[in-house]
Amino acid sequence: MILFLAARPVTAPPVPARPRRPRRPAGVGSHLPFLRPYARIFAVPGARAFTAANLLARLPMGMFSVSAVLMIAGSRGSYALAGAVTAAGLAATAVVGPWTARLADRYGQGRVAPLAALLAVTGSLALVLCVRLDAPAWTLFAAYVCTATTPNTGGMSRARWAHLLRDDPRALHTAHSFEQAADEVCFMLGPVLAAFLCTALFPEAGTLVGAVLLLTGMVLFALQRRTEPPPAPRTGRVRSPLRRRGLPPLLLTFVCTGAVFGSLEVVTIGFADGHGVRAAAGGILALQAAGSCAAGLLYGLLPPAGRPAVRFAGCVTTMAALMLLPLLGAVSGSLAVLAAALLVAGMVTAPTMVTGMGRVQALTPAGQVNEGLTLAVTALLAGIAAGSAAGGWATDHLGSGGAGYAVPAAAAALAAAVTLSGHRRAVRAR
């Protein structure tokens, strides 16, 4: 027996297999590690396809107003009429937009978005015909009001990310940051493209190209069904997200933030015009948008720290402080100093919007995300309209020496006051 055991071959214990590391998705993040959070979200199946289609549809959002103003003012010789027509369309969109989003929540984006885009494009084409045929002024208002069904493309894209990344808050933060950067790029390139088309080709070119891009992009976006949030049919009476606790003060902050954007644009144009370089206003405003876009992308690379309510209050407070820089830059009388001040001030815009949109989504019921995000955009539009009017009044009555920049500074301070007040009430309620 001993000889038999001695004769058996001695085998080494098996070496445990080394666990295989999961393959990283090929892309930018594989070569540039700091961009890995963005590579991670775009590795989600279908994410690239719906994002590309949505960007195609979103670019016209920065084209339509500028195109309408150039087209109407060029044919009727009245900027007042052009401004009134676009203001009427903006007001109609603020009313109709949440209803369109509610239908998208109830029946699905794929069924609602293409039809809504088609109705909006019909309104744009009617506006072109009315201008071409020299129709009465009231027809311009009627036609442009019909564009109010334009889908909230950014909100629909954010709703898809919220559905796809509902179990991954870190990735959802990155996705919201990307969406805000995309908004900045579209509103930076859209007016430039519109002005080029309307001046280099013919006055109606900007509106026509924007209509084609919107309808094409929305159809392609709607075809991406696997990333679409499931519809949430409603059998009984459903409460509006506006009745959710904490959402109305948040939307009021969005109104004030929109007033910052609207007044900043008008006051900057007036300041540049007063210095005899009105053409430079677009470049100066583009710097502000570029600063916001860069900050948004960087913000998406950082993991969110602390409670969202505290982060949002910090972002809005920082925005209020930095909005004093354009006022100081304008007082110096130097366009270069003003441009640098706007670049720095713009860097807090995207983090504020990213955190704010995340708060809106968190406070909105799951089956009403499109509606909740559209309410936020509607609040911004209302603020932009009010800020534009206030900025125009300040430019006319205070002159173009830079005093008008007190309007965006005051709007930012009001936003901070509303946010901090709501935060204190929420803390006391706990």
Automatic annotation (TrEMBL):
Keywords: Membrane, Transmembrane, Transmembrane helix
Entry annotated with the keyword Ribonucleoprotein: no
Pfam family of the protein (one): MFS_1
Tagged with keyword Zinc: no
InterPro entries: MFS, MFS_trans_sf
SUPFAM superfamilies tied to this protein: MFS general substrate transporter
Stretches that traverse the bilayer: 79-100, 112-131, 246-271, 277-302, 309-329, 335-360, 372-393, 405-422
PANTHER family: MAJOR FACILITATOR SUPERFAMILY (MFS) PROFILE DOMAIN-CONTAINING PROTEIN, PTHR23542
Designated name of the protein: MFS transporter
Species of provenance: Streptomyces olivaceiscleroticus
Lineage, highest ranks first: Bacteria, Bacillati, Actinomycetota, Actinomycetes, Kitasatosporales
